[in-house]
Write a structure and sequence with these properties.
With 224 residues, this protein is an alpha/beta fold. Helices cover 50% and strands 15% of the residues. A 5-stranded parallel β-sheet has the order 2-6-1-7-8. Strands 3-4-5 form a 3-stranded antiparallel β-sheet, covered by helices on one side. The structure holds cytidine-5'-diphosphate.
């Protein structure tokens, strides 16, 4: 077994705005592990494409672009070509564009190595759609974190308003349903509950409860 494979990974997958990023980041902090927000990679790639005039359906050009992405994470901030883009990639338009390019299989394959490079000692907590199924199939713990579309829309609404963006709750519910359908029905790495993954339904659950549940499962697995 290579060294990388002995480094534990906790993979938290789930639909848009389920709160998996918040939970994953807190679990990572609690365990002293690294954290990878894989959605940010898709968002930055889409943002860079729009910035450079690359069409979102031009797969070869997107693959070429992904190979030269100058991307750096520093805490909660994300840098593209040395410029902070954390807020710019969090808009709903950037999320939609990310979801569109995320359906392209060659682009997903091109981004695998970049994501796997985040697996460093003492461990990694990561969130996305295919962390447990494709990127880290040997993850020690796999969690599928979800909530109803209405609850997720409320969470996203709060997040956008707090960042000073305009938002409409009905439009968000509609957008989430469309994104869910696209993520679940695409042929490349569709979002689904993996065999062996723990289902965490968080509609009526506090963040602390969700974090403690994930850490509890990790410890139960005998790795804590
Ligand atoms: O906020 P939301 O959960 O929608 O987005 P995100 O996690 O930042 O990811 C943005 C988009 O990238 C999602 O809508 C997915 O289509 C895509 N994505 C993916 O396909 N695979 C991942 N591992 C992460 C994100």
């Amino acid at each position: 077994m290579s060294t990388a494979c002995t480094i534990p990974v906790i993979a938290i997958d789930g639909p848009s705005a389920s709160g998996k990023g918040t939970v994953a980041a807190l679990v990572a902090r609690e365990l002293g592990f690294h954290y990878l927000d894989s959605g940010a990679i898709y968002r930055v790639t889409a943002y860079a494409a729009m910035d450079k005039g690359v069409a979102l359906d031009d797969e070869p050009a997107l693959v070429a672009l992904s190979r030269v992405l100058d991307l750096r994470f520093d805490g909660a901030e994300v840098y593209l070509d040395g410029q902070p883009v954390g807020d710019a990639i969090r808009t709903e338009a950037a999320g939609r564009a990310a979801s569109q390019i995320a359906a392209l299989p060659d682009l997903r394959a091109a981004l695998l190595e970049l994501q796997r490079a985040f697996r460093k000692a003492p461990g990694l907590v990561t969130d996305g759609r295919d962390m447990g199924s494709v990127v880290f199939p040997d993850a020690r713990l796999k969690v599928f974190l979800t909530a109803t579309a209405e609850e997720r829309a409320k969470r996203r609404y709060k997040q956008l308003i707090e960042k000073g963006f305009d938002a409409s709750l009905p439009a968000l519910v509609q957008d989430l349903r469309e994104r869910d359908a696209r993520d679940a029905n695409r042929s490349a790495a569709p979002l689904r509950l993996e065999a062996g993954a723990h289902l965490l339904e968080t509609t009526d659950m506090t963040i602390t409860h969700a974090v403690n549940q994930v850490i509890g499962w990790y410890r139960e697995a005998g790795q804590g």
